[in-house]
Amino acid sequence: MRNLRLWLFLLAAPVVAMAQGPKGTDPIPFDPNVKTGKLKNGLTYYIRKNDKPEDKVDLRLVINAGSILENDDQQGLAHFMEHMCFNGTKRFPKNALIDYLQSIGVKFGQHLNAYTGFDETVYFLPIPSDDKEKLEKGFQIIEDWAFNTVLTPEEIDKERGVVLEEYRLGLGADDRMEKRFMPKMLYKSHYKDRMPIGKKEILENFTYDKLKNFYKDWYRPDLMSVIVVGDIDVAEMEQKIKDHFSSYKNPKNERERKYFDVPNHEQTFVAIESDKEASFSQVQLVYKDYTEPKKMVTINDFNDNLKRGLFSTMLNNRLEELVNSANPPFTYGYSYYGDTWARTKKGYQSFAMASEEKQLDALKVLVEENLRVKKYGFTASELERAKTEYLARMERAYNDRGKTESENFVWSYQSHFLENEPAPGIEWTYKTMQQLLPAIKVEDINGLINTYIKDDNRVVVFTGPEKENLKKPTEQEVLAVLNMSDADITPYKDAEVASGLLRKEVKPGSITKKENNAKLGTTTLTLSNGARVTYKKTDFKNDEVLLSAVSFGGSNLYSNEDYKKVQFANGALAEAGFSGLKLNDINKFMTGKIAYVSPYIGGINEGFSGSSTPKDMEYMFQMLHAYFTDLNYDNEAYESYKQKQSAFFGNLASQPEVYFQQEVFGFLLKDNPRFNGIFPDEKSWAETDYKLAYEKYKERFANAGDFEFFFVGNIDDKAIEDFSAKYIASLPSANTKEKAVDNGYRMLSGSHKKVVNKGTDPKSTVMIRYYGDAPYSPKEDLALQALGEILTIKLTEQLREKESGVYGIGARGSMGKVPYGSYSFSISFPCGPENAEKLTESALKEVQKIVDNGPDEKDLSKFKEAEFLEYKKSIKENKYWLNYLNEAYLNGTNPENILKVEERVTALTAKDVQEVAKKYLTKDKVIAMLMPEQQN
Description:
The protein is an alpha+beta fold and 936 residues long. The chain is built from 31 helices and 23 strands. The chain has four domains: 47-245, CATH 3.30.830.10; 269-482, CATH 3.30.830.10; 511-646 and 690-728, Cytochrome Bc1 Complex, Chain A, domain 1, CATH 3.30.830.10; 752-931, 2-Layer Sandwich (Cytochrome Bc1 Complex, Chain A, domain 1), CATH 3.30.830.10. Helix 20 packs parallel to helix 25 (717-728) and helix 26 (778-802) crosses helix 27 (836-853). Mean pLDDT is 95; it is low at 1-19.
């Protein structure tokens, strides 16, 4: 979340008029569209009216207290307390809270949630706002969380199992390595001893009074904030806050809310950690500040923050160029100035992910790039691009200032309460940036590096896999890289910016037919080359246009031999760039322009996804045209892609959960000659043929007349007609239409049990799958989806709440139509190995109950309410419309069904759900279990 703070700061939208020019000592204003105040007991509140999404409100209870305030015998109880707030309050005993919220369409985990950090505990409650009773209940809930949680011994003991399962989930290579390097990262700090998950022995054995004491000490008005943002009446909400929270008092002998520093250190700490189950090799370099963070209060502070942002943007652009180079030093790398683990400590930080044998090389590149900036600084052209990039993003946010989702505002006000982060809003921010940016010179930025990097108070952390023949870097080698000379470092050379995205003349085609669908609000253009463009104009976002293009065909048309040769090379094709431009050339040209297009080749189809602002829509069309007609062939780009992919995927299977997936699907697809593993290995890369993949790509995109193009967003009719005629109608085409091909391969039939042993931690995963061929039915598809949601509710009630055996569990079902009719239903959950068989049996019993008796009407009602809420929100989102139009085309269904979703959901009955359970969940199934390796 630390990386979100800048944008949270930028996104809160006020209406503030600017004076002639900001003075450096002027304070940063607070958003006047927010009603804020403090009750006599010290509780702070923020209220904002925002109708995106409409008829919904986001309530948030923020406690300025987390695990850092635990006593030694309370480690893990801040987080445990978060759990208990959902397990019984004065007004909502036991599980009545979850039950009620589900009845009004709020899903536990997806919507209703919470988190515990070192310094805060936060509760999320999004609810409908079009019903006064629901609103009142919402305030009762957050009031009860704050002051009226019922901590009965019975419920505490039941929740121990759930919290311990969450603790178990966190075990693994990352946890083991973190425990070893954290004492260096948080040197002599209280933070290193207060990880939010706590200690297992305390979670198992703490006495009830320890939890009650934490609640009493820290859940108090002067450490609380209530945030209300949504489609509401502000005055009414303020009165509700007063009614529900004014009567509570702070403890008479309240404990001091202390803040803890991370002490400075003269030495450089180096942690080189490895683990046999580690998936990735990473490098982290942190230069910690000497003093506590300075708060942003004045325009000067804001300007300093801008400079830091520009610095990071320019340096990360250089690092991205290296990632896109012929011999990339790492899979990705970035640097920034910001928060470390502790609230009271910021620093300059650089990260990289590299192959395990290149960690020292990756560190060297990070250090070199820092030294290059220190010795030569940035160039004026780099700064201008960074400014342009900043303003383009800000302009987009500014243009959509009236369309901002409530959740974005909530995060901003939470940061204001907890850390006094400014929340001036997008209008003030955008106008102030327009005034300040032109005056920032490259000299103002270059000097920052001298305040960032230092010879002390720094930490280097290497984490990666442990292998027999792999030589680990030594601390001396790391220090040698850190202290390297800049004598051989040369200045950065800024390449010339391309003049355009296309190098070939475009000969426009024409529009031969134009049709309107009044019900959907769509327009369909038939072009002279046979391609069809369907677009829908919306006002959901002012600065968004989305693209999806699709054609039947895909890799199912390839022979088995060819498919294996190109499977893992397909992702490299776009890495070569187009029109003779490399990726770095394209990225430079696109500075300040917001548009992207990405091609893909799937099993049954090929196509594109993309997006742009209305202003930059032509660039999106140009990219589309270039990917069709002028994709580069670049073996160096392919080799670069292969190196990065190998570094990323090379050790992924050492992670038990990933190995489990690979083994299970290898078992289920063992009769499929096209199955080549989930991830590429050395053998896969050796068999890969980039040239063949390129030729197949050209074959797949040779006939634009076989494509359907969908656009949704703030679209100008004339612009899209002109661009469609010029850039799409001009594409090559043939008088052929391909169809989706079923190659006949299926997963293993029959009932099976597969046990996979991997990992040293006491962790298991259970996966139960039902699948097979079946004629597609929209009604059954919906019923299977409902069955998944309902069964998730019942499994959570039984396996989590009653048996305390899992932290999370889920079920989901669906049907497919193309290229063949099919059904799929799955149940999955992590648990302790000793409970895997018992919990599997419990899960299957819940399935059988629905098969025998059908679902409870109240559970079906919960599903429906959640669907209605989700639909009400989604039907006003460009992404939802784009996906629906795309899927309707692929499935050959009527796109007007998007207007009948509520009708179909309303018509669904408990009998419908029981029938699909009987039909599909009484057939063959596969039970797969991940179990730890046998220990000697």
